[in-house]
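SEVERITY: medium
COMPONENT: batch folding queue
REPORTER: lab tech (J.R.)

DESCRIPTION
The queue accepted two submissions in a row. Attaching both inputs and their returned C-alpha cells so the on-call engineer can compare them side by side.

ATTACHMENT 1
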Amino acid sequence: MILDNFKLDNKVAIVTGASTGLGQGMSIALADAGANVVGVDYVDMPETKATIEGMGKRFLGIKANLMTIEPIDGIIEAALKEFGRIDILINNAGIIRREDAVEFSEKNWDDVMNINVKTVFFFSQAAARQYIKQGTGGKIISVASMLSFQGGIRVPSYTASKSGVMGITRAMANEWAKHNINVNAIAPGYMATNNTAPLRADEERSAAILERIPAGRWGTPDDVMGPVVFLASNASNYINGYTVAIDGGWLAR
C-alpha cells in the first residue's frame, strides 16, 4: 500500500534544535511515523522526551552548542552507541540577528553564519559519511526560509545563511545521490515560533505579514509535520536537491 512508503518504523532520526517550536514538532512527527529520535539542543528537552516516549518510541537527548562544529562527531558517536545506526538528519537549529545592514556587526554576521550554514554543511557531511559506511543510504533535511528566496529587512546574515542552505542542499544532492542519499530542505513561511516573536509583537508589521499570506494566519509546528515525514520517508526517494516552501501561499502572492 502507498501509505506504507510513509512509515519510518525502526528508523533513527537526529533532529537539531529539538526542544521547542519547529524542531520539537518535527521530532514528534518522526516518532509518530515510527522513528526513534536523537534530539540535540543547547538546553534540556524534557517535553520533547516525554511526548516521544509516551508514544512508545525511544528518545536520546544530547545537550550541545552547535555554534561550532566541534560537537558533531560526538553526537554521531552517541547516536550510534545508542541505536547502532542513523537514517535521517534534520538540520533545524538556527538563530537570527536583527540590525540595520549599515550598522550590522561582524559578530552578528559570524554567529548566524556559523550555526545556520557552516554547522548545517558539516553535520550533513558527517551524516553522509555514516550513511555511506552503513551502505543504507539516508535522508538529510535542512530548514531553509522564505529568506532563501527573498532579501528581507534588517537580517542580512540570516538571509545569506538561508540562501546558503538552499544552495548547499543542491550541491550535496548532486554529489551524494549516487549513494542513495536524498538531500532536501523545507522553507517554512512566517511561523509562530521564538524567532518571529518580535514580528508578532509589532502590530503593524504582523498585520502587514498576515495581509500577504493567502492562508490568513501564521504557520505552526503542525504545518511542517507532514512535509518532513514525507521527505524523511521512502515516498520521496526520487526527490533530491529541492527546497519545499511551507508558507501558506506567501511566495505565490
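ATTACHMENT 2
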Amino acid sequence: MDFLNGNIKTIYFKYLAAAFGSALITSIYSIVDMAMVGQYHGPEGSAALAVVAPVWNIIYSFGLLMGIGGSVLFSTIRGKAEGQEKRSNAYFTASVIGSIFLAAVIWLVVIFFDRELLLLFGAQDNTLSLAREYVSPIKFAIPLFLFNQMLAAYLRNDKNPALATGAVLAGGIFNVFGDYFFVFTCDMGAYGAGLATAIGSAITFIVMLSHFFTKRNTLHFVKPTGLFKMLKEISVTGFSTFFIDVAMGILTILFNRQIMHYLGTNALAVYGVIVNISTFAQCCAYSVGQASQPIISTNFGANKGDRIRQALKYALGTTAFFGIFWTALSLAVPNLFIRVFMTPTPEVLEIAPTIFRCYGISFLLLPLNIFSTYYFQALMKPKVAFVVSVARGLVVSGVLIYLLPLVTGADSIWFAMPITELLVAIYVVYEMVKCTKPLKTKGVV
C-alpha cells in the first residue's frame, strides 16, 4: 500500500477492515469470558469479571503506549524521505525495550499483589474469590497481552494489517471454543475461562512473530542512540492512546465502588455487561483511529494536507455510523445483552433497561472522542490529545461519578458518561477544526 500516492478511500477501508477485525477480536477475549462465566456462575460471575476489567485496561494501555507512540514516529519519519529505515527502526527497537520493561513490572505486581489489586478494583466476598480464580492462569501470560498490542501497531504501520488481524483472530477463535470446553465441558468455571484466554494470547503472539520471517518485513533491531530520549518521545506521543485504556480501568474502578456503595451487586452485574458493550463500542473507535493513523502520520511527514483531509472525511463518517449503531442497540434491546452475558435474576431484568438506556446515550459521541486522540497524535499535537483523554477519562467523568449521586440521587450516576462525552465532544470539534484549517490543499503549514 502506497500511503503517499495510493487511493485514500481504498487504503482507508482496507486498513479499517483489518483494524476493525483486530480490535473486535481483541475485545472478544474479555467479552466471551464474561458471557461464559456469567452463564456458569450467574450474576456473581459477571460482577467478578467486572472487577477484573481494569486489569485488562492497564495491560492493554501500556502495549498501546509503546505501540502507537512508537509507530506514529516510525511512520512520520518514513513519510519525510526515503532511506530512513535505520532511524525509524531505532524507534521500533526502543518500543520493544520499553515493552519488556513495562511487562516485567506489571507481571510482578499482578503475581504478588493480585488480591490487593482486586480489592482496590471493587471486589467483595465471593466476587473476590471468583476474580482470583479467573486471574490465576492469566498471570503466566501477562507479558504476551502487552506485546500483542505493541506488535499489532507496528505490523499495521509496516503495511501488514492483515497479519495483525489474522493473529488476533487465531487467538480469539481458540478463546471462544476453549472457553466453552474448559468452563463447561471440563467444569472448570472461572479458572477455565482464564486458561483459555491465556492460551489464546500465546497463539496470537506466535502468529504475529511470523511477520519477521516474511519478505515484506522492514522491521529490524538496530542499536538506538539516545534510548531514554526515544522512550520519552514515544511516551509523549502515545500517552493519550495509553490513557484512554487506563482511564477506562479507572472509571470502572470508580463505578464499581460507587455502585456497590449506593446500589448493590445486581446493579454491579448490569454494569459489568455495560463495560463489555462499551468495550465493543470503544474497539470500533480504535479501529477508525488505527486505520487512519498510518495514513495521516505518513502524509503529515510528507506535507500532503489534501490527503489528510480525505482520510479525516472517511474517519468521521465511520465514527458517526458506529456511534448511531451502538446507541440504537443499547436503547432498543438492553435485556438481550443481559441474557447473553449471564443467567439473570428477575431483579436484574427489572433494573437493566433503565440503566442501559441512560448510560447508552454516551455511545453516540464515544467513537468521535476516541478517534480524535489518534488524529491529534498523527498531526503531532500530543497536548491536545492529552487534554481530550484526561478530561474524558478522569477529570470530568471522575467528578461526575462522585458528584451526581450526592446531588441528584444514586440513579443519576448512569448519566455521568453521557454528560462527559458531550462536554469533551464540544472541545474536540473546536480543536479538530483549528488543527485541520492550516492543512492546505497542497501541503501542511
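NOTES FROM REPORTER
The first strand starts at residue 439 and ends at 440.
No errors were logged for either attachment.
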